[in-house]
Design goal:
Strand content: under 5%
Radius of gyration: 41 Å
Distance between the termini: 81 Å
Helix content: 40-55%
Bound molecules: heme C
Length: about 140
């Protein structure tokens, strides 16, 4: 099979006509005088460095709420004595309760604050450890 030169020429002419027509249509009839300064040659932008596809962030496994330890569970019960002044949840931090993350801090607070003195006799060291465990679980990471 041979290429028909006539067909090629015809196709070429059609392309030319199409381009020419488009150009005419684009030229505004009342063209303002051409600007004297030639448009600056477009600066070739440097080829963008290939951006490595971001590694898909590992879907964080939903953290199951840690089951409170037995100590913290006991502490939660003991804490009911504290809610009147410190709020229902140590997380809220009413009157510095969030500091009570160790039994030492708690006992020091019992001593320092007269309205809490009674807990010195009421709660054992173990109770205060449990309270601290509970408070840690509520306020700490
Ligand atoms: C009658 C009210 C009252 C009760 C009940 C109470 N507290 Fe307090 N507590 C206070 C006051 C008042 C402060 C001092 C707040 C301040 O210093 O601004 C305080 C402060 C604290 C602090 C912070 C100490 C610090 O270093 O700032 C801790 C910890 C604490 N209490 C623990 C407890 C625990 C545990 C209980 C329950 C067993 C309890 N409190 C029950 C009134 C109370």
């Amino acid at each position: 099979m041979t290429t028909d030169p006539g067909r090629l020429t015809l196709a070429f002419a059609l392309v030319l006509a199409a381009c020419g027509g488009a150009e005419k249509a684009d030229t505004p009839s009342s063209a303002s005088p051409p600007a004297t300064t030639p448009a600056p040659a477009p600066v070739p932008s440097p080829a963008p460095a290939p951006v490595p596809a971001p590694a898909p962030a590992p879907t964080p496994a939903p953290t199951p709420a840690p089951a409170p330890s037995p100590a913290a569970q006991r502490g939660a019960v003991l804490y009911q004595e504290c809610v009147d002044c410190h709020g229902i949840d140590p997380e809220i931090g009413v009157r510095g309760i969030y500091k009570g993350v160790t039994a030492d801090v708690i006992v020091a607070a019992y001593r320092r604050v007269s309205t809490m003195n009674r807990f010195l006799a009421l709660y054992s060291d173990g109770d205060n450890e449990d309270l601290a465990a509970y408070i840690r679980g509520r306020v700490g990471p």
